[in-house]
Amino acid sequence: xxxxxxxxxxxxxxxxxxxxxxxxxxxxxxxxxxxxxxxxxxxxxxxxxxxxxxxxxxxxxxxxxxxxxxxxxxxxxxxxxxxxxxxxxxxxxxxxxxxxxxxxxxxxxxxxxxxxxxxxxxxxxxxxxxxxxxxxxxxxxxxxxxxxxxxxxxxxxxxxxxxxxxxxxxxxxxxxxxxxxxxxxxxxxxxxxxxxxxxxxxxxxxxxxxxxxxxxxxxxxxxxxxxxxxxxxxxxxxxxxxxxxxxxxxxxxxxxxxxxxxxxxxxxxxxxxxxxxxxxxxxxx
Length: 285
What we know:
The chain is built from 4 helices and 21 strands. By secondary structure, the chain is mostly beta strands.
């Protein structure tokens, strides 16, 4: 089968709008800038569209340790401040981050209508991926738990056929969309992919919450969509799944052609490991 990367996405602020990319480097946490920022409530727990659907209207663009946030035509620039340490909780993990100026937090709180605080995940923070699925030595920032999410265009096309109109990829917030010749939901059975120099292991199906039922343009619930998705994608455990969580298993050195198990920012030649739109994808198993 001929497969390729048809879309690349990252989400600089967890649960805010994503950015479509033509290419992205591997950061050691995931795609560059992916979910390096999070909003927390006064208890330190992360805030997402699960409890604050308005976050879907919040655009975010990252540059180094700065984040530009845009809401209904207004923008604010946040700088991560190492002198303001903050602990953020994501699904039981407590992650040491850097805060931002109080004025930025107040602006975001005013926009969203609830008190929030913006937190950045610095490079030296190490939040381990669950070793039960990934093994040791894999890390992520403020994602739900894994550095990458993979879905196929064939799956989206099949859902669109069943729904009767186009199902927007933004509902499912993937990092890599795989296009080309495969059956719908083929990713359910894939275990390992090669994308350029990177070998990905697909380690855990992605269980779905309420977020896919939210319209990415209106940020309101689409009547019947959650039930529709459950009808076609509910498994025996009662959960609804679509897409696969993935890790970088290894990288192929460009000149030696050997497997490297250093999942950091560069391979031994010193150039960045990258994903690009149109890149060939091979199913290894």
